[in-house]
Structure formats: C-alpha cells, structure tokens
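Researcher: We plan to redesign the surface later, but first we want a full-length starting point. Tokens attached.
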C-alpha cells in the first residue's frame, strides 16, 4: 500500500508481467549469447538489450509493487526501449517477427496499466 491506498489490480499485473519479462529477458539473453549466428536479424544488439532490460526489470519490480514513482519511470523508459526493439524486429524480418509482436504487445499493455486512472492515483500517493 502506498500511503493507505490499495494497489490496483493493474499495477499488480504490471509487477507480475515485469518479473516474468525480466526472467525471460535474462534467460533469452543468456541463451542468445551462446546461439548467435548470421541468420538472426537483430543479432547481438537484440540479445544485449533483452539481457539488460531483463536485469533492470528484476531490480525495479519490488518498487512497482510498492508504488515507487522512480521504479515506474524506469519501467516506462525501458518499456519504450523494448517497444522500439520490437519494432526493429518487425523490420528485420525472418523468424523474429513474432518476437517483435510479443515485445510490442507487452510494452503497450505495461504502459497502459502503469499510467491508467487508478495507477496514477496509486503512484501519486507514494
């Protein structure tokens, strides 16, 4: 609770999505480092971005659950970066288009839930 205001379900959902995305980002980033080849359009850039965003997501996840505004800002910035990475995957073509679509959808959901009505009140009260 942030100053007596109950955490909205959307913020809880964002926290869960952030933890899952962080874990997957780290997992796929590490696996990607061992599986780089010329057939992957985004290559090393995508792997490194996934790994870094995954680690930072995991570090700020508790702040999201607690209503920390700085954590919310960090997640928003990283989510926009992840959204741009997803868009780059769409233009890279080949087999990573699905990864790009997933990144874009998750990013849009996170941004919507972090800045929706009840979430604004929750984060403003901390």
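Model: Full-length starting sequence:
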């Amino acid at each position: 609770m942030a100053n007596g205001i109950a955490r909205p379900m959307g913020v809880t959902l964002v926290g869960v999505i952030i933890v899952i995305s962080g874990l997957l980002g780290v997992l796929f980033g590490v696996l990607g480092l061992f599986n780089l080849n010329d057939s992957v359009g985004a290559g090393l850039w995508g792997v490194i971005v996934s790994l870094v965003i995954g680690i930072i997501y995991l570090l700020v996840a508790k702040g999201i659950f607690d209503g920390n505004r700085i954590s919310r800002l960090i997640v928003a910035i990283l989510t926009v970066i992840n959204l741009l990475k997803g868009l780059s995957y769409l233009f890279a073509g080949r087999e990573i288009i699905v990864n790009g679509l997933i990144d874009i959808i998750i990013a849009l959901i996170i941004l919507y839930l972090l800045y929706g009505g009840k979430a604004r009140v929750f984060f403003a009260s901390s």
